[in-house]
């Protein structure tokens, strides 16, 4: 499956073309080799390269099929095992967890029979992915750790090392060992670069972006996304691109830059790998949800992200999406959906053997559905143990809303102050604006009347148009261009808006716009 010294020059050319992203040339070379040679070993290697090409471009089912053809042609147990291990991985990425499990077990037996530790490593990594997807990240981490220890770190072994590091980092991330997950990825990226192999680099960058995003290192996540997308474009290794676009959009929207978030997901629209999505499409749909122009559009994308993630039931995404979807479903009056998602979250927490972040998700969803402050308080405490600051902040907002709704605003105030501090530390401008608005309402709750249904009701139509765009993150020149106004007119409208609404910053304006559009949750 990997080029060896003394190999036929045509095979060397095929590998070089594939690894440099010259897919059209590689396809021609592969066709020429398949037609021109009866040698089973050569044909097996060509089919394996075609499988990798299809994997890189996101055609996962086709990749798995070509890998299995390569395995059928291979005569050496180690080569056959490597083909089956990579077919297993492609099946996992396409959502066929059961087939992945079957092929991984076969591959491990062949790797042991052929005395090839890299085959054993990739097979174990696929088995770890299955265990993880079935709800046990702790056991998955142990399997993936064994896989990484078995893999080499030079030549072809560097690819196997990267594959095992990806599975290990995913399991550790869902087991709340975030620092360990990032360290595993840092090490694998360095190993790949030293070995001169970038076959798995987009995947490694994508998983590190996810890890950094969860840990609150949004700047690091943003840099990884940028590198990932650039590398994917340069090499044709597009399969991880949806993760890059999605996480980058989440960071932009979280910082209050809705314009950039929308631009990112709009650009990603031309990079979708199939009509029904691909691995990582759940991240892109989540990015579309936070960048949406309306609550209804955002809800639709959230539902899509949820069901897309359920193809690999307990692998990474469910804990990120579930509370947000419950909140959105309740806002739209869909109690059944909210209850269904909360039930799934409870099942996931039970499977995860007491992992704090999983239990926090379950408690948060149940607390939202039942308007239960005790469950929400348990979620806050568990997120603190799991070291997931952004999600702790959101749970604090949920608990504060619960107490405020019960007429106990004084209990909400310290929660909102803590949430505001968390969001400011993360530069999560959008959430900080929500917390600030809630804090202002809770602080003067005894003295004020019920707020108007529309916080922007006092504005003229022109002022409202300008305010809405400024609140979503657009600059004055961008607003002027979109509304066909001069920048001076835009500034005049904004001055009037600030006076009428008694505010002094765009952060406050963003909170009022979010409330007016039903996006305050």
UniProtKB/TrEMBL annotation:
Q: Which Pfam families does the record cross-reference, listed alphabetically? A: GerE
PROSITE patterns noted in UniProt: HTH_LUXR_1 (PS00622), HTH_LUXR_2 (PS50043)
SMART domains for the chain: HTH_LUXR
The UniProt keyword set, sorted, is: DNA-binding, Transcription, Transcription regulation
Q: Where are the transmembrane segments?
A: none
Q: Where's the HTH luxR-type domain?
A: 452-517
This chain belongs to the protein called Helix-turn-helix transcriptional regulator
Q: Which organism is it from?
A: Nocardioides jiangxiensis
């Amino acid at each position: 499956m990997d080029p060896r010294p003394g190999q036929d020059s045509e095979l060397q050319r095929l590998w070089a073309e594939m690894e440099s992203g010259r897919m059209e040339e590689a396809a021609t070379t592969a066709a020429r080799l398949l037609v021109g040679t009866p040698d089973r070993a050569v044909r097996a290697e060509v089919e394996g390269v075609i499988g990798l090409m299809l994997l890189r471009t996101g055609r996962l089912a086709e990749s798995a099929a070509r890998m299995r053809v390569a395995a059928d042609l291979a005569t050496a147990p180690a080569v056959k095992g490597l083909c089956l291990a990579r077919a297993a991985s492609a099946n996992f990425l396409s959502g066929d967890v059961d087939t992945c499990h079957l092929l991984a077990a076969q591959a491990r037996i062949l790797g042991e029979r052929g005395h090839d530790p890299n085959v054993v490593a990739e097979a174990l990594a696929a088995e770890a992915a299955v265990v993880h997807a079935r709800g046990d990240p702790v056991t998955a981490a142990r399997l993936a750790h064994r896989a990484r220890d078995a893999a080499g770190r030079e030549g072809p072994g560097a690819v196997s090392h990267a594959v095992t590091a990806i599975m290990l980092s995913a399991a550790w991330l869902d087991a709340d060992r975030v620092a360990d997950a990032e360290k595993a990825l840092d090490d694998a990226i360095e190993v790949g670069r030293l070995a001169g192999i970038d076959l798995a680099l987009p995947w490694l960058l994508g998983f590190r972006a996810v890890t950094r995003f969860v840990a609150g290192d949004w700047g690091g996540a943003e840099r990884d996304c940028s590198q990932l997308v650039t590398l994917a474009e340069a090499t044709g290794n597009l399969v991880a691109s949806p993760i890059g676009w999605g996480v980058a959009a989440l960071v932009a929207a979280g910082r209050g830059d809705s314009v950039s978030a929308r631009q990112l997901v709009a650009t990603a629209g031309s990079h979708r790998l199939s009509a029904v999505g691909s691995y990582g499409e759940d991240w892109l749909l989540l990015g579309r949800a936070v960048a949406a122009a309306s609550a209804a559009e955002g809800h639709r994308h959230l539902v899509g992200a949820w069901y897309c993630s359920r193809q690999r039931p307990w692998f990474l995404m469910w804990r990120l999406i579930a509370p947000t979807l419950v909140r959105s479903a309740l806002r739209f009056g869909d109690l059944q959906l909210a209850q269904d998602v909360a039930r799934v979250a409870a099942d996931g927490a039970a499977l995860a053997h007491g992992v704090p972040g999983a239990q926090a998700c379950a408690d948060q969803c149940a607390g939202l559905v039942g308007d239960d402050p005790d469950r929400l308080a348990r979620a806050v405490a568990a997120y603190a143990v799991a070291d997931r600051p952004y999600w702790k902040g959101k749970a604090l907002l949920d608990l504060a809303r619960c107490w405020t709704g019960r007429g106990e605003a004084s209990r909400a105030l310290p929660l909102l102050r803590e949430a505001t501090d968390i969001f400011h530390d993360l530069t999560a401008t959008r959430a900080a604006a929500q917390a600030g608005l809630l804090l202002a309402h809770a602080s003067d709750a005894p003295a004020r009347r019920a707020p108007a249904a529309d916080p922007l009701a006092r504005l003229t139509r022109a002022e409202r148009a300008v305010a809405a765009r400024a609140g979503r993150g657009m600059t004055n020149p961008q607003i002027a261009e979109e509304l066909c106004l001069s920048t001076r007119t835009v500034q005049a409208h904004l001055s009037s808006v600030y006076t009428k609404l008694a505010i002094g910053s765009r952060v406050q304006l963003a909170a009022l716009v979010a409330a007016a559009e039903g996006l305050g949750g």
